[in-house]
TrEMBL record:
InterPro entries linked to this entry: 3-OHacyl-CoA_DH, 3-OHacyl-CoA_DH_NAD-bd, 3HC_DH_C, 6-PGluconate_DH-like_C_sf, 6PGD_dom2, NAD(P)-bd_dom_sf
Organism: Weizmannia acidilactici
GO molecular function: NAD+ binding; oxidoreductase activity, acting on the CH-OH group of donors, NAD or NADP as acceptor
Keyword vocabulary terms for this entry: NAD, Oxidoreductase
Keyword NAD tagged: yes
Pathway annotation from the record: Lipid metabolism; butanoate metabolism
Top-level taxon: Bacteria
Pfam family for this entry, one: 3HCDH
GO biological process, one term: fatty acid metabolic process
Protein name (database record): 3-hydroxybutyryl-CoA dehydrogenase
Positions bound to NAD(+): G9, G10, G11, T12, M13, G14, D32, E92, K97, S119, N143, K273
Family to which this protein belongs: Belongs to the 3-hydroxyacyl-CoA dehydrogenase family.
Length: 293
């Protein structure tokens, strides 16, 4: 049974996972190597807790529990030393994830399950760096974590059935809908989203339609909740580029990153997190109206 969760990485996904786990009744420790990142995550989570309670999405007892049982640290060993489940949420760089998993294997309790929050990468390859590949798995959360219901659970080559069940139960306690996916680059959702988003970028580059009209066409014609360019901005264009490059290496030509995506990343236009991507977010509050849910 999972009671204590450690989240490694205080960025957009890490703080979202920590928030969601805390309001679901878990004791949570959020770790990042950067003191600044830890403080930003703390401020974000506390502000989101307050706004969500004000809007009726979180009950007062959930807010009180979360504030009491959410811990922040820059020390990885301290973060994972008592964890039942560790969720790694560092950037989508395979070498970085492998290095983190080596440390998790060293410092986490013997019974702890080690999960990587990856949208494309191999849990088998990451687990091979540990002495417990049967207790390693991928949990692919979606952004914003507290709103999105799905978690893809990806079994590695050696992942045990017990590990699958532990992770499914934890996901369900967080109010999520877990789906089990066999390991293959990009899993289910990332393969589809990357293709749609990349084609939207190519259409923009070709002058087929404007940013706004491409997004409107997909939202109102195909009933997607967000347009593909809006979604790419939310994910982060640097993250999307890394995903595309990984899929291109493993699945071939149809995943070649759009030239406009490469250009935007080189220009530092990374989406919401940088204030500008396909859209301009310079005047958007970091807790916009759709986040406090």
């Amino acid at each position: 049974m999972v009671n204590r969760i450690a989240v490694i990485g205080g960025g957009t996904m890490g703080r979202g996972i920590a928030y969601t786990a805390a309001i679901s009744g878990f004791e949570v420790t959020l770790q990042d190597i950067s003191t600044e990142a830890v403080e930003i995550a703390r401020e974000y989570i506390e502000a989101l807790l307050g706004k969500s309670r004000e809007n009726g999405y979180v009950q007062q007892h959930q807010e009180i529990w979360a504030k009491k049982n959410l811990y922040y640290t820059t020390e990885l060993q301290k973060a994972v030393s008592k964890a039942d489940l560790v969720i790694e949420a560092v950037p989508e760089i395979i070498e970085l994830k492998i290095e983190v998993f080596k440390q998790l294997d060293k410092y986490a309790p013997a019974h702890a399950v080690l999960a990587t929050n990856t949208s494309t990468m191999s849990p088998t390859e990451i687990a091979a760096s540990t002495t417990r590949p049967d207790q390693c798995i991928a949990m692919h959360f979606f952004n914003p974590v507290h709103q999105m219901k799905l978690i893809e659970i990806i079994r590695g080559l050696d992942t045990s059935g017990e590990t699958i069940e532990i992770v499914k139960q934890a996901a369900e306690k967080m109010g999520k809908v877990p789906v089990e996916v066999n390991e293959f680059p990009g899993f289910v959702t990332s393969r589809m989203n990357c293709l749609i988003g990349n084609e939207a970028m190519n259409m923009l580059m070709e002058g087929v339609a404007s940013i706004e009209d491409i997004d409107k066409a997909i939202k109102y014609g195909l009933n997607h909740p967000m347009g593909p360019l809006e979604l790419a901005d939310l994910v982060g264009l640097d993250t999307r580029l890394r995903n595309m490059e990984y899929l291109y290496r493993h699945l071939g030509e149809k995943y070649r990153p759009s030239p406009i995506l490469v250009k935007y990343v080189k220009a530092g236009r990374l989406g919401r997190k940088s204030g500008r991507g396909f859209y301009d977010y310079s005047d958007v509050n970091k807790l916009g109206s759709n986040e406090a849910q």
